[in-house]
Amino acid sequence: MARGRFITFEGGEGTGKSTLIAGLVPALRDRGISVVVTREPGGTPLAEKIRELALNPPDDHEWSPLAHALLMNAAREDHLVRQIRPALDRGLWVLCDRFADSSRAYQSTQGVSMSVLKQFERAVVGDTTPDLTLILDAAPEDLAARRMARDITDVFEAKGMEFHQNIRNAFLAIAKDEPNRCTVISALQPVEDVLANALTAIDALGAQ
User: What is the pTM assigned to this prediction?
Assistant: First the structure.
């Protein structure tokens, strides 16, 4: 059986990753592709527990940036072992809302060196790298209304505009460094255009 495809979705807060994934699932299934949808941090019972602890620590407590990176990678290890790799081995396509690029972007912005983050990534991710990463991009100020409408409160959503701009810059730098894997899509387009651009990138993946 052929290995499934691994597609990840990245971008800042409020860029519309969940909306895009929701549109892609029926489009891919109409093509006869079996799809598994998951997210990071999370995706397994243990990883979801880590997600809650990492994103919503007890009142008056805050993780250090390095501790946060370790938590994310602990969740990712369980996610890969229990969900992602078994699904790919069964020939399923895995659509994952955030993956290792988010650790690079968020934890490097918080001060963890990129060399340390890449060491973690090599140890945890290994050869299970995404076949395609779709990065939804927009200026943070243009997404402010979306973020407010989502009414989500966690350690990242609560940060100021400079933090969100740094996150955007980090994702764009990743896309520039790895153009064969990453495709940047404007998040400010109509939903149907974002979906069409994503399907175009997926079609190009199929030709590889």
Answer: 0.91
